[in-house]
Amino acid sequence: MSMLPMSSDPIYQRYSFAHGLIKEAGALALGYFNELDSLTVKSKGLQDVVSEADLQTELLIKKRIAESYADDGFFGEETGPSGIGDKRGIWVVDPIDGTQPFLSGMSCWCVSIAFVYDGELQFGLVYAPKDDELFAGGLMAPATLNGRPIAPHKGNALSDGVVSVGYNNRIEPSEVLAVLARLLEAGGMYQRNGSGALCLCYVACGRLLGYVESHINSWDCLGAIAIIRAAGGQTSDFLVDDGLVKGNAIIAGGPAIYPALAQLLG
After folding, report:
1. Whole-structure pTM over 0.90, yes or no?
2. Which of 10, 127, 130, 159 could join 107 in a cystine, given CB atoms 3.0 to 4.6 angstroms apart?
3. HSE toward the beta carbon, residue 183, CA cutoff 13 A
4. What does the pLDDT read at residue 64?
């Protein structure tokens, strides 16, 4: 992969910085992944667990950001918000998105980093260490996968590809079953791998037709949303109604299929 160009723009400097940071964090997480039997794991709720790998990876990211950009705020899944109320720049981090697959020895997990400035999503990076795939993009940079340009699926009907349907314990089972019924009745097919960030990146690069979920947390999706938009895809306005803190619904896909995806959520 070619080196990123030099720039005096402070947002782009953070984007360049984040490339090295996410690789360092990914290497740390992968080290824990290779020693799963020795991990300490705690439950946060139904189908929601956290390991020392999650916490230590987030602490590394938080430390590196504080060392380089002390004036920025930080919002991580494991350590929560820090200075987000009065900071113009906010880093939004999920150290390991897909903890259940991670702990099960599966490869579908990733590190996600996003940066928001003055309430606007600027860029995102998502790194899947086991597959060594780095997705990146933002307002100032095109969407790439390991440095190569990517674009969403060109399909315009739900039957043209596979849609990822997100689910978590904040969503009623009947609600997601209704989404699946609409999708299947339209001739579509569904997929879920346990990592919303990765599935959204698969939308960005055209592996998946789209993604829908009636509620997802910001750390799970903001990095990938930035990449989808940079790739020419369309997403719902996630940050509206305090989505950064409260989470929101997410709809994502190519412009041609987006209206059909939106109808899936009812």
Report:
1. yes
2. 130
3. 27
4. 98
| First and final C-alpha spacing in the chain | 42
Domains of the chain: 6-149 (3.30.540.10), 162-264 (3.40.190.80)
For 224-234, the pLDDT digits (tens) are 999 999 999 99
96 annotated to a ligand binding site: yes
* 3-class secondary structure, 149: strand
Q: Is 54 annotated as a binding residue?
A: no
Is residue 74 predicted with pLDDT exceeding 60? yes
Q: Which stretch of 22-26, 46-50, 91-95, 134-138 has the lowest confidence by average pLDDT?
A: 46-50
**Which candidate, 200, 261, 204, places its Cα nearest to that of 228?**
204
According to DSSP H, which parts of the chain are helical? 10-33, 52-68, 99-103, 173-185, 196-204, 218-230, 243-246, 258-264
Q: Is 132 annotated as a binding residue?
A: no
Tell me whether residue 120 is annotated as binding.
Answer: no
Give the amino acid at 99: T
Ligand-binding annotation for 237, yes or no, is no
How far CA 92 is from CA of 3, 38, 83, 95, in Å, comes to: 24, 28, 12, 10
